[in-house]
Write a structure and sequence with these properties.
Chains A, B: It holds the Pfam family LacI. Chains A, B: GO terms for molecular function: DNA-binding transcription factor activity; transcription cis-regulatory region binding. Chain A is α/β, with parallel strands linked by helices and about 350 residues long. Chain A has 13 helices and 12 strands. Chain A has 3 domains: about 45 residues, lambda repressor-like DNA-binding domains (434 Repressor (Amino-terminal Domain)); about 130 residues, Response regulator (Rossmann fold), CATH 3.40.50; about 130 residues, 3-Layer(aba) Sandwich (Rossmann fold), CATH 3.40.50. In chain A, strand 6, helix 9 and strand 7 form a beta-alpha-beta unit. The interface between A and B is large, with 68 and 72 residues. Chain B binds a DNA duplex (16 and 16 nucleotides) through helix 2 and helix 4.
Chain lengths: ~350, ~350
DNA sequence: TTGTATGCGTTATCAG
DNA sequence: CTGATAACGCATACAA
C-alpha cells in the first residue's frame, strides 16, 4: 500500500524566512505582501524576489487569526444541492461567481442549509468563518435568513421574499422587461393574436413576466386576455397549450414563461399538426438547454445568469471594502436569443 | 445596523471565557471540545454547559493555526463551473458529497482550475489550505494533477486518465456492468436484433458500456455488430439512429449510451413512424432529466451519482483519519430505471 | 485527570 | 519608511 498521508513538504516558508532572505524584518515583508504603499521600491523588489525564490505562500489561518478576516465568502444554498446545481440557471450563476472571484484572493465556501432549518449554516456564517455571504435559491418562508442580519455583509441572488428588518442588497433580473421583450418580438414579427403560458401565480418572477407581456400588448393595442397559468414543467406547458388552442382558435403566437413549458407546448402543437413557426410562433424564457434539445430551436429570453453571479460578487466586494453607498437593487437586463420558433 | 435577535454582537466568546465560566483551564475546555476521552464526566458536563450558555463556537483560524489542520476539503473542478454543474450527474454527485459532509465539521471549498493551467489551484491545495481534495471532471491531459501528489490525500471522481506516479484513489461506476444491464433487459423482453448508439471512441466510459453491450449479446448468442458511434448529443443520436435504421431494417431494439442521444433517437424514430416500444424498444443511460422530458418516458440506466459523491467523502475521511488500507478502486453499481420505452 | 507554558504565522501598534 | 513586539485563539508537549 503506497503511503498516502506522507508530507514530503519541508517546512513551508514563512514570513520569517522571507524576511531573512531579503534582509528585512517580518513587518516589512508583510507590508509588501499586502501591498502597502509605504515601502521603498528597492526593498519591495528585494522582498518579491525572496518570495519568488522561496515560493512563499501566506498562511491563511495565521493571517485570518491576526486580521480577523477570512478571505472566504459563503455561497449559502438553502436547499438540496443537487436541485440547486441541476438548475442550469444556478449553475451558470455560480460560474459567474467563480469567474469574478478568480481575480481576487477570496475563496468560495459551499454552505448548505437543507435539513437543519438553517441552524448550522447560520452558526457557520455568524461564527466568523466567512467575511460575507451570497444567498441564492431562497424562498418565501426561509425566515432563518433573518438571523444572518447584522453578522456579515450579505448579497441575495434574487429579491428575497422574507421579512428582513433591514433593506436587503440583492441582484435580480428584470422579469417585466423580459416578458415585454419576448412579446414585443412577436408583435414586431406581425403576430396579432398572442397568448401566454404564464408561470405559477404565487411566484413574483412569473407575475412580472406576465405584466411585461400585458404591457407590450397594451402598447400595441392588442388583446391581452389569452392567459393560462402552468407550473413551469413540460407537461404543464403541454396542457396549457391545449387549453389555449381550444379557447382561442385564432391564436398565432405564444409567449411561454419558461423554456420547459415551451417545449411541452411544442409537442402539443406538433401532435395537432400545427406548424411552428408557420402557424404559431413561440418564444420561451430562460435559454436553458431545453431550448436547443428539440428539433426546432426555441427563440427565448436569456437571463444573464452569469452576469448576475459576477454582479453579486462585485457588490459584495464593495460591501466588504466598506463602500457606503452600494445600491440595494442591482437589476440586470435580459436578452433575446432568436432561433427557429419565432 | 439594526440589532439582531439573540446575541448582542460583543466579543465572540473564546476558550478562555468558557474556561473561566466552567472553573477549569483552557486546556480542559479544549479537550472537551475535541472529545478527548481523558476528562472526568462531571467536568465534561460543566464545560458543555458553559459552552452552551455562552454560545461558544471554536475559532476556525486559531484552531487551524495551532493544529495545522484546516477542517476543510477542496472540491477541485478542472473546468468551467457552469458546465460542471450544468451536468446533472455532477450536480447530483456534489449533492452526495454535501450530504455526507453535513455530518462532519468539514467544509467544502470550491476550487476551480479553468483558465490558469492549474497553477493557482495547485498552489491553493499545496499551500496547506485544505486537508484533502476531491477531484472531479478531470480529463486526459490534465497533467497538472500530478503536482497535487504528495501534498494532501486526494480522491478522484472517476478513474483519472493522467500519468500519476502513485496509484490514485478513486470512485467510479461500473460502466461495463451498466451496458450489460441495459442490454440484458432488452434481451429478456424478447428482443433479438439489438443495436447500440455508442459514445465517442476515445472515452473509456463509452467503451466500457459498449463492452457490456457486446458481452450481453454474446452470452445470449445474438449478433453484436449493429454499432454506431455518436458524440453524446441529441442530434448525434438522431443521426446515428437513422444510420442504424438504414443498415439494419430488422432492428427491434437499441441501447443508447446516453439519454441525450436516446432522445435524439426517439425523435428520429417518431419522424419515421416507428412505434416505441412497439416496433423498437430503446434503453438510455444516465437517468438524466432528458429521460422524462419527452412524451414517452425513457427506460434508462441510472448512475448512482449521489452515492458516488458520498463514497468519495467516506474514502477521503478514512484517508484523513490515517486509515492505512483504504481500497484504491471504489466501484459502485448501476441500476435500471424502467419507464415506457423498453 | 488536569493545569502550565509555549508556539503556530500574521497583522497591527507603536517607536524610531 | 522600517523594525520591534504584542496580540489573535487554540492545541499540545510537559508537569503535576
Amino acid at each position: 500500500m503506497p503511503t498516502v498521508t506522507g508530507h514530503p513538504e519541508r517546512h513551508a516558508p514563512t514570513l520569517e524566512a522571507v524576511a531573512e532572505a531579503a534582509g528585512v524584518s517580518r513587518a516589512t515583508v508583510s507590508r509588501v505582501v499586502n501591498g502597502s504603499p509605504s515601502v521603498r521600491g528597492a526593498v519591495v523588489e528585494a522582498v518579491q524576489k525572496a518570495i519568488a525564490d522561496l515560493g512563499y505562500v501566506p498562511n491563511r489561518a495565521a493571517r485570518s487569526l491576526a486580521s480577523s478576516r477570512t478571505h472566504s465568502i459563503a455561497l449559502l444554498v438553502p436547499e438540496d444541492v443537487s436541485r440547486f446545481f441541476g438548475d442550469p440557471y444556478f449553475a451558470s450563476f455560480t460560474g459567474g461567481l467563480d469567474r469574478r472571484l478568480a481575480d481576487t484572493e477570496y475563496v468560495l465556501n459551499l454552505v448548505v442549509a437543507r435539513d437543519d432549518p438553517g441552524r448550522k449554516a447560520v452558526r457557520y456564517v455568524r461564527g466568523g468563518n466567512v467575511d460575507g455571504a451570497i444567498v441564492v435559491s431562497h424562498h418565501r418562508g426561509h425566515d432563518f435568513l433573518r438571523q444572518l442580519e447584522g453578522s456579515v455583509p450579505i448579497v441575495y441572488g434574487g429579491r428575497p421574499d422574507v421579512a428582513l428588518s433591514a433593506e436587503p442588497v440583492f441582484v435580480d433580473v428584470d422579469n417585466e422587461a423580459g416578458g415585454h421583450l419576448a412579446t414585443r418580438h412577436l408583435i414586431e414579427s406581425g403576430r396579432t393574436r398572442i397568448a401566454t403560458i404564464a408561470g405559477p401565480e404565487d411566484m413574483p418572477a412569473a407575475l412580472d413576466r406576465l405584466a411585461g407581456f400585458r404591457r407590450a400588448l397594451r402598447e400595441a393595442g392588442l388583446p391581452d386576455d389569452a392567459v393560462v397559468h402552468a407550473n413551469f414543467t413540460a407537461s404543464g406547458g403541454a396542457e396549457a397549450m391545449r387549453t389555449l388552442l381550444s379557447r382561442h382558435s385564432d391564436l398565432d403566437a405564444v409567449f411561454s414563461a419558461s423554456d420547459l413549458m415551451a417545449s411541452g407546448a411544442l409537442t402539443a402543437l406538433a401532435s395537432r399538426g400545427v406548424d411552428v413557426p408557420g402557424d404559431v410562433a413561440i418564444v420561451g424564457y430562460d435559454d436553458s438547454p431545453a431550448a436547443t434539445w428539440g428539433e426546432i430551436g426555441l427563440t427565448t429570453v436569456r437571463q444573464p445568469s452569469e452576469l448576475m453571479g459576477a454582479t453579486a460578487v462585485d457588490v459584495l466586494l464593495r460591501l466588504l471594502a466598506g463602500d457606503a453607498d452600494v445600491p440595494h437593487e442591482n437589476i440586470v437586463q435580459t436578452e433575446l436569443v432568436i432561433r427557429d420558433s419565432a
